[in-house]
Fold:
Amino acid sequence: MSIKAFYSPHYAAADTPTLARLGIVAKRLRDLPGIELLEPSPLDRGKLLGLHQADYLLAFHEGIEPLASSQGVRWSPTVRNAFYWMLSGQLLASEQAMESGIAINLARGFHHAVFERGSGYCALNGIALLAHHRPDHKVFVIDCDEHGGNGTEEFAQRLENLYQGSIFGTRFGCLGHQRAWNYLVHVADDGFQRYLDSISEIRQHIVDTRPDLLVFQAGVDCHRDDPKSRVGLSSAQLEQRDRKVIGIAHDLGIPLLIVLGGGYQDPERLAALNIGTLQAALDVFG
Ligand SMILES: [Zn+2]
Structure:
């Protein structure tokens, strides 16, 4: 089978290095047999109503400072449009996942955005969007970025159909609550088995929750060569992580949407790690 991945050149805003890197991943993907790239349609902005506070949505649309740049990257129409396109891709990829079991959105920059503003290079919370868009569906996020998904955790307090299990090396304000389970793991001190055990514990929460959709936030800034990494996963351990997480969705028969997350080392090496995640998806679902 082929796996559908949503991507538009609009995602890779040239004036934002963290987003521009997505273009390198997309380019490499064209050579990966089994992945079919699809371009999303423009976002229906009505889908964002109520997701974030109205004054923030207006500021982000119009470029009204300081809110417009609250994510930490200077606002421009190009940056705004990149996020709009990534959110459209997110909705389409979630529908695709529900239809065929798995889909990919080659996007990043969602999980730190909170209701009132952006944060940590994340302008709009495209993960919370999925739960906001389908209140009748339970959405469970497995967030394996170096940084805790504090924005999604906060949204999970507002949205009763949103759940998150987060394994991180940098807490980023995550405290956990009745629908958010956190695991702080530094492999050098705690051992890699502790990391794998954390995934197993999240799997049990997924079994108990019985979600309609799983979202894997596959950050690679937890790779040990990344300047921000405190988790400290080797390339082989990262591959094991990907296979184990993707295997949960496959084994339990729950539709899976994979999104990319953070990554701050050399863009070509980053792209290779991202491609590794997608290769794992092909191997598990192939
Ligand atoms: Zn991160």
